[in-house]
Amino acid sequence: MVGTGRDMNMEEKKYSGYIGVFDSGVGGISVLRALVRELPDENFYFFGDSAHAPYGDKTVSQVQELSMAIADRMAEQGCKAIVIACNTATSAAVKLIRQKYSEGMPIIGIEPALKPAATQEHHGRILVMATPVTLKLEKYHELSGRLAGEAEFIPVSCSGLADRVEQGNLDAPDVTDMLEQMIGAYRGRVDGIVLGCTHYPFLKKQIRKVMGDVPLYDGSEGTARELHRQLVRYGILSQSDKPGKVVLDSSIHTEQEMRLYEQLFHFHA
Ligand code: DGL
Predict the structure, then answer these.
(1) How much distance in Å is there from the Cα of 200 to the middle of ligand 1?
(2) Computed over its alpha carbons, how large is the radius of gyration of the chain?
(3) Is 197 annotated as catalytic?
(4) What gap in Å lies between CA 28 and CA 107, rounded to an integer?
(5) What residue ranges define each of the domains in the chain, with the CATH number in brackets?
(6) For residue range 163-184, what is the model confidence (pLDDT) as tens digits?
(7) 79 classed as catalytic
(8) Is the CB of 86 under 6 A from ligand 1?
(9) Of the residues 34, 85, 162, 197, which is catalytic?
(10) What is the pLDDT of residues 219-237, one digit of tens each?
(11) Atom of ligand 1 nearest to the CA of 130
């Protein structure tokens, strides 16, 4: 059948009706897993910008530019919603992306799970592991300021840690050495730890090895519930009763890189 101009245009929209999910790299896969659990009938297109990771050590305007380029591409490809599965990109760029697109589709960001941690560990001491950009920006200061009466937050800038997750082989001893250096001094002195970067949930086992059996909090479940609410609000929830598709994509599209993406998607903690 010969396609009309409109049909051809539709063909270009490779991910029409998909939910676009992006991160600076593999970290967002920890969020994607929660999204698929919450909304198994939706189609997801995941893009990790591993060629430009880490975002957390870049300037704010660089993170904004990279994030907007991905959002633009997802919108062009027909995505019906965008989830910024990166605390750093959310802190730097969610406002700009919303200004451009939120009239037409939901734009969901992720933020460090300070609120669930403060609720559970009321008046406790909470370590917040995140990237330098996340900890420097207004979003974190606004959130920690708002909850200051509920708990004590101790921010730890974990420069280099997301980049190490990008390299895979997470059971290697250098990973625990790195964690020991970054947070070992707080062992036995905190009541909870917020994993304020989406790469860190892949290190739960290693963090527990260094810190003992302390409660860990991340924002992926909250983000999944928020996406669900927004899809209902915009009236675009999938009506299918079949399991949706999940497409994994990266700016480093080699076989080896895609194997790491697959492995982390099927990761068992
Ligand atoms: N995964 C990202 C986050 O949640 C950032 C990692 C990076 O520095 O690229 O903050």
Answers:
(1) 9
(2) 19
(3) yes
(4) 15
(5) 2-110+220-265 (3.40.50.1860), 114-217 (3.40.50.1860)
(6) 999 999 999 999 999 999 999 9
(7) no
(8) yes
(9) 197
(10) 999 999 999 999 999 999 9
(11) 10
